[in-house]
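Try this one yourself first.
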């Protein structure tokens, strides 16, 4: 899966000759972080919505379901996530909600730095995260970048 996504990322980068902003929701955010880690020269920033960054399925209230669907092997182990950011060299924002209901908000946050922001969106569910206006943008830009300035 990551190889196919990487090939697609390379095609987009070659077509537009610009670095790409990756947005990933839930488990898709893990893939976005991995792509940024593997191809930092192609990625402008990563924005994750309700994405667990911890290295275990306890970071989500659906861990039991993920384990069952993965034949008892934690899917978080399949993608080798770590508590530290996978995309440390690329600006990253983790958008989370304490009312998510699926992913534990504590599992969505990382240590804040010049390259990483945690952004809480109030009163939104896991499924509503992608529809909530506060998840999509802040201050005229994406959660990472306002007015075109990285991490502004």
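Now uncover the answer:
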């Amino acid at each position: 899966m990551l190889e196919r996504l990487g090939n697609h990322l390379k095609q987009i980068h070659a077509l537009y000759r610009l670095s790409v902003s990756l947005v990933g929701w839930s488990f898709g955010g893990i893939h976005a972080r991995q792509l940024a880690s593997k191809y930092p020269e192609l990625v402008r920033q990563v924005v994750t919505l309700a994405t667990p960054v911890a290295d275990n399925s306890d970071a989500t209230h659906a861990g039991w379901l993920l384990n069952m669907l993965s034949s008892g092997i934690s899917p978080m182990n399949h993608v080798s996530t770590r508590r530290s950011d996978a995309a440390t060299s690329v600006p990253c924002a983790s958008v989370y909600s304490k009312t998510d209901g699926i992913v534990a908000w504590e599992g969505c946050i990382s240590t804040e730095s010049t390259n990483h922001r945690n952004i809480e969106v109030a009163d939104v569910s896991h499924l509503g995260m992608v529809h909530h206006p506060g998840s999509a943008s802040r201050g005229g830009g994406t959660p990472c970048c306002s007015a075109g300035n990285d991490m502004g």
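Discussion: The mean pLDDT is 77. Strands lie at 20-25, 43-49, 92-96, 116-120, 145-146, 149-150.
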